[in-house]
Design goal:
It is a single chain. By secondary structure, the chain is mostly helical. The chain contains 33 helices and no strands. It is flat and about 90 Å long. About 25% of the residues are buried. The N terminus and C terminus are likely disordered. This is MSLNL protein.
Length: about 525
């Protein structure tokens, strides 16, 4: 709505001619009547680079945008020339299905810009590819490189087209998708699963139907050897019937390496819980990988986590993201069972989640663990927790205190909890530490107020000029207000204003009281 209003405002002020300075997203909201004929090609080429999802597919505004672009480019029928396709950009995604075969192979690269094609567009795309009259050739001649070159278009291939691709090629492509699955984000994983199922369906159609096994599995029961060829393609119900608990336990890591849906993941969790009704043994917890993320805080509170190796395995980033509440419960359980947080564990936990620990839990962290944890970002901690962690860091790095440079590098992440006395010691150590502005602004506001102008100058060193850029930060404003303006000018010399003014003179002493009949001759000194 804001972009739409802004577009109307610019049009009202006759500023649409200078569209080159506007972001492409804004151009989507211009009315075609506001686009000049002489520059319309450049306008629509730039607008097509915007986020078309800002305009709902099929909406009047999006339809009007495409119509304006086609008129500008002189398109009269279904066929579009390569130059016209290039100017349309992602607007190609809204073309009628008939334009795909009419425009021929030239349209394929443009269609790769489309997040998704309609059913009719997919049918038209497959019809064009089945002619074999494209750069990709006949589907029966495709190899792994061809499928990779098709890019996002491979998601639009139907069973007729896929069935013509050699089975060995389909299998190579399936394996390449599965190999990349673990490093993909959620949305990309969903697309990969769709592809895997499509290729699996094509393979199933070319093979004789297997008999239903006696235990209800619609195909052969899953074995260790058949995991890669079965687990990703079964529905949750089929997985439940075809994967025995014993096979899962023996091959848990192999099963978890396969790309599966959330529904299938819940089946695996159910089977693990069935295997260990009295609780998952600690050695088995290490094997859970990403499956551990499906457990609730209540379930985690029952885990037997006593070893740092177990906690490290559970926290490993290779298993995906945890919810903060899950990590909090996991750490609480580990500490309650007598566990101790080491430097490597603190690195796995990270500064943000470290801040979620209770104060009494932070108090239990050994100073030496802080010393080996590396750089932890504790900016989100409460002031009390920052002070707790600073004291531990101060103890851990005390041996470096005689070498201010190395000492500062180690203590820097924890200075938000430092008292003014320690900051003054750093400032007057005789070695420039050149504190960066972010660290300075993260100091305890109460302690900063106790620093003199010279202290601040010595702390910032060569970064002092940057303090001027932050003069409106509340922390800086409150500090400046209690400093002498003259000292700010003479010592810092960076133009900070708002300090205490110098008195214009000393107060005059009171005149002595004299009788009314006596004329005083006393003078008032200046």
């Amino acid at each position: 709505a804001q972009l739409s209003c802004l577009a109307r405002l610019l049009a009202a002020k006759n500023l649409t001619a200078d569209f080159g300075s506007f972001p492409p997203d804004l151009l989507l909201f211009f009315h075609p009547s506001e686009v000049r004929a002489g520059t319309c090609r450049e306008f629509y080429a730039r607008a097509s680079r915007g986020n078309l999802d800002l305009l709902p597919r099929g909406s009047s505004r999006r339809t009007r945008l495409l119509r304006g672009a086609l008129t500008c480019l002189g398109v009269r029928g279904s066929r579009l020339e390569p130059q016209q396709l290039g100017s349309l950009g992602a607007l190609v995604c809204d073309l009628e299905p008939g334009t795909i075969p009419a425009s021929g192979p030239a349209i394929l690269d443009s269609l790769k810009l489309c997040p998704a094609l309609t059913g009719a567009q997919q049918d038209a795309l497959n019809a064009l590819l089945l002619t074999g009259d494209t750069a990709y050739g006949d589907p029966s001649s495709w190899d792994l490189r061809t499928l990779q070159d098709l890019g996002p278009l491979v998601r639009a291939l139907n069973q007729t087209t896929l069935s013509l691709v050699a089975e060995a090629v389909r299998e190579d492509f399936r394996r390449s998708i599965a190999a990349a699955y673990s490093s993909q984000g959620p949305s990309q994983r969903e697309k990969s699963l769709i592809l895997l199922r499509a290729f699996a369906a094509a393979s199933a159609a070319s093979q004789p139907r297997l008999k239903r096994s006696t235990d209800g599995c619609p195909s052969e029961p899953i074995t260790a050897d058949s995991i890669p060829d079965s687990v990703p393609y079964l529905t949750p119900e089929e997985l439940d019937l075809c994967l025995s608990n014993d096979v899962l336990l023996e091959n848990l890591e192999a099963v978890l390496d396969e790309p599966i849906t959330l529904g299938s993941a819940k089946i695996l969790k159910k089977k693990v819980d069935q295997l260990f009704p009295s609780g998952i043994p600690e050695e088995q917890l290490k094997r859970l990988g990403w499956l551990s993320r499906l457990y609730t805080e209540q379930e985690i509170s029952q885990w037997w986590v006593t070893s740092s190796d177990t906690l490290s395995a559970l926290l490993s980033s290779s298993g995906g993201e945890w919810e903060d509440s899950q990590v909090q419960q996991l750490l609480s359980r580990y500490l309650a069972l007598g566990g101790s947080l080491t430097g490597p564990l603190l690195r796995e936990i990270g500064g943000k989640r470290l801040c979620n620990l209770r104060e009494e839990q932070i108090q239990e962290i050994p100073a030496e663990a802080i010393g080996t944890a590396g750089q932890l970002n504790i900016s989100l901690c409460s002031q009390t927790k920052k002070e707790q962690l600073y004291r531990k860091a101060w103890e851990a790095f005390a041996g470096l205190a005689s070498t201010p440079g190395p000492y500062y590098c180690q203590i820097q992440p924890y200075l938000g909890g430092a008292p003014a006395e320690d900051l003054k010691h750093l400032a007057n150590a005789g070695v420039a530490i050149n504190m960066d502005l972010d660290t300075f602004l993260a100091l305890n506001p109460e302690e900063l107020q106790k620093l003199s102008v010279t202290d601040v100058k010595n702390l910032l060193g060569e970064n002092l000029p940057k303090l001027k850029e932050a003069e409106n930060e509340p922390l800086v404003v409150s500090w400046v207000k209690i400093q002498s303006q003259r000292e700010l000018d003479c010592v810092l010399g960076i133009g900070l204003e708002g300090g205490l003014p110098e008195p214009t003179g000393t107060a005059s002493p009171a005149r002595p009281t004299t009788p009314a009949t006596v004329t005083s001759t006393a003078t008032v000194p200046t």
